[in-house]
Each structure stands twice: as structure tokens, then as C-alpha cells.
């Protein structure tokens, strides 16, 4: 799944990663998954 944020960034995430995000994720939440 690809998430697009208001700042113009796009992130392709697997289902497992999507499940790990909070209900209203931000780009920072996605970046936190990488590290």
C-alpha cells in the first residue's frame, strides 16, 4: 500500500508495516518504522 502525505511524500509499505502504524499516521511515524 502507498501512503501519501500532505507534504508530498509517498511511502510504499507492506501490510505488516501498515498494521504497526497509529490510526492517524504521519511521515515521521513511517520513518520510525525504518529505524
TrEMBL record:
One Pfam family it belongs to: DUF7561
Highest taxon listed in the record's lineage: Archaea
Protein name: Small CPxCG-related zinc finger protein
Organism: Halobacterium salinarum (strain ATCC 700922 / JCM 11081 / NRC-1)
Amino acid at each position: 500500500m502507498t501512503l501519501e502525505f500532505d507534504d508530498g511524500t509517498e511511502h510504499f509499505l507492506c501490510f505488516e508495516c501498515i498494521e504497526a502504524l497509529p490510526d492517524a499516521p504521519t511521515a515521521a511515524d513511517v520513518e520510525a518504522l525504518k529505524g
